[in-house]
Here is the input.
Amino acid sequence: MIGIVSYGTYVPRYRVSIKEIALAWKKDPEEIAIALGVREKSVPGIDEDAVTIAIEAASQSLSLFLKKPNAIEALFVGSESHPYAVNPTSTIVGELLDIGHEYLASDLEFACKAGTAAVQMIAGLVASGQITYGMAIGADTAQSKPHDALEYTSASAGVAVILGKTHIIADLISYNSYSSDTPDFWRRDGIRYPSHAGRFTGEPAYFAHVMGAAQRLLNKSKVNISDIDYCVFHMPNGKFPREAAKRLGFADKQLGASLVVDHIGNPYSASSLMGLASVLDVAKPNKTIFMVSYGSGAGSDAFLWKTTKEISKFHSKQKKSGYTIEHQLRQTTDITYTEYLKYTHKL
Amino acid sequence: MNIAVIGTGMTVFGERWEISPRALARDAVKQALEDAGCDKKNIQALYVANMLSGMLGMQGHLGALFAEELRLSIPAYTIEGACASGGLAIHTAVLSILSGEYETVLVLGVEKMTDHKPEQVSSALMGAGSNEERLAGATFPGLYAILARSHMEAYGTTVKELASVAVKNHYHASFNPKAQYQKPISIETVLHSSCVADPLKLLDCSPVTDGAAAVILSKKPTKNGVTIIASQVATDTLGLAERKSLTTIAATTEASCKAFTLASISLKDIHVAEVHDCFTIAEILALEDMGFVKKGEAGKRISEGAFTLGTAKQCVINSSGGLKACGHPVGATGVKQIVEITDQLRGRCGKRQVQHARVGLTHNVGGTGATAVVHILRKEMYA
Here is the structure.
C-alpha cells in the first residue's frame, strides 16, 4: 500500500479582511462576505514567494518524517506562482532542504490543482518501485488584479506531502482524474494578473470537473457516501465546496473539518491539500477521507484516503512541535488594504 | 394591414455556454418552420435582428451568415436598433411583405452575451447610448436610474413599487419553461439585492442572456389565425440630455398612438402585452406612456396586481416574465415578444395562459427610448 508518510503546512501570518478590501472599492463588505463565504484571506509577507512558502511547508514535513532528508528521491512542486518562468522552484527547494542531488525534480503548473497532480505522480513513482519516498508540494502566492473579484479570495499557503510505503499515516485507497479543455481562468506568459470568465468558472468548470472526478472515484472504489468520514473539495470560495458536498450527498459534519477557506481564502495549489491536512490533523485511525481538487483549464484529481494507527503517533509529534494548522491559524497579524498592496508588490 | 404570423419558435433563454449562435438560430428556426408547417424553400427573405455580434463576437454580416447556416440562398438582411433590433426586424419584414416583394419571410432574433465579461457587455451595450453619455462613463443601469429617480421625485413612485414589477414578472416566468429565471421572488428580496445604480437594485435589472427567437410572417393567413394589424416605429434623441422630459419616453407614446390608430382599436381592447422592462422603471414608463394608466399611477397599479396573471381585470403585462425574468438577449427580445403574444393568442401558453386573449401588443425599446417599436396582434375569428 502507498500512502502519506508525513506532511507539513505553512500559512503566512498576515490576514487582510474582506471588509478591508470591500471598503477600499466602496463595496458592501457584508454582501461580498456572504456571497463568497469568506471573511479574510492570508497574504504573503513582502519577502515571501512560492519558493519560501514551499520550503516552510516541506521543512515541517521533513521534521516529522522518520527518515533523513536524502531519503526523498523525487520532489515535485505544483504552483501557478513559480517565481521564475525558466528556472525550477523544485531544485531551489530541494537544495535548501538538503535532500542531496540524487532525486528527480520537476515543477508543475495546473492552476489550483498542480499540487494534487504532484501527489498522483509521486504515488505512481512509489507504486512502480522507482522510488521509495517522494515529496509533492502545492504552494502559491496567488495573484489578482486590484478590484477584480479574485482579489477577495486569492491567498497564500503551502502544503508538502511525503508519500511512501512504510510508516503510512493515511493509505491511498484509490485515485483518478477528470480533465477537459475548459478555458475558465488563465494567465498568459508575461502577463501579471490572471483573467477569468466570471460565472463560467462555476457550472461548466468547477462543478463539471469536481463532480466528474468525484463520481468516477465513487464508482471505481464502490464506496458509499455514508461510509466516508470526511470530504475535502477545492475551495475557491466558501460556497463552491459546500455546494459540491451537498450535490454528492455529504452532510455538513463530513465537510466541516476541511473548510480552511473560511479563514485563509483560496491558496490555489495548496487549497485542497490544506483541506486534507486540516482533516488529517484531527482524524483518528481508520477514518475514510474523500478528496477532490480542481484546477482551471480544467481538471480535477480525486483521492480516497484511509487513516492508519500511525496517525496517532504523528499527532503526538505534531503537537510537540506546534505544527498543527489550528496553531498556525491562531498566529495572525491583521493588515490594512494599503499594507496588502505593499506586501504583494502592487505598491 | 394584416400580416399573418404563421410560425413561432424560441430557444430556452439563459446562460447557454454550451451552444453557439449558429446552433441557437437553428433551434429557433426549426421550431418556427415546424410550427408553420412550412418548407424552408417557401421562405423568400431572412431578417436577422442582432445588436452585439460585431462588438463582442467580431462577427458582422449576419444576414449571409445565418442564411448559410440555415441553407437558405435568399436575400438576407441584418437589422440593428440596439435592444429594439428585434422589433425593427419584424417591422422591416412586415414592410417587405406589404411592398409586395415577398409573400413569406423569416425573422430571426439572436444574441450571445454570456460568453463575454460583464464589463465588455456593459461597454458594448453603451453603443446604444450617446457619445456624451459614454464619455461621462454612464451605463444603462445608470441612465435608467436617472429616469427612475426623476419619476420618484415627480410622482412619488417608491422603490417598493419598482420592485413590484420584478416580483410580478418573476411570478409569470415561474410558469414559463423557457425563461431564464423561473423562481418567484419577494419585494424584500428585490429591496435587499445589491444596489447597482441607486435606486435600482440588482433585481430591478434585466439579466444578460443568450437566446434566439424566430417568427415566420406571410401575407397568406393560416388556420392559427394570428395577424399583425399594426406595426409602428418612432425615434427620439439618442441621449437623455436632449429630452424634454425624463418621466416620459416620447417615442413610446408616438409609436403606440400611431399603432392604435392604424389598428382602429383602443387600449381597453388589449388583453395581453409584452412591454420593454429592461429595468423595472421601464415597465412603469411604458404602461403610462402607452396610456394603460394615468401618468404617475403605474407603480401603484402594478403593485395592486392590476396587470398580474390571475388578478388582472383588463390586461396581463409580460406574461412571459418579460425581459426581467424571461431574459434579455437584446437582439432577440423584440422577436421573442411577438412569439409570446402569438402563442398567447393561440391559447398555447399552458399555466401562464391569459384566458380569452384575442388582442395583444408588443413594445420594444432601443437605448433609453431613442427607438420604440409597437406591434398589435389579433386572433382572427375566422380561424
Chain B has a mean pLDDT of 96. The interface with chain A takes residues 15, 17-18, 114-115, 117-118, 194-195 of chain B (CB under 8 Å). The first strand of chain B starts at residue 3 and ends at 10. DSSP finds 14 helices and twelve strands in chain B.
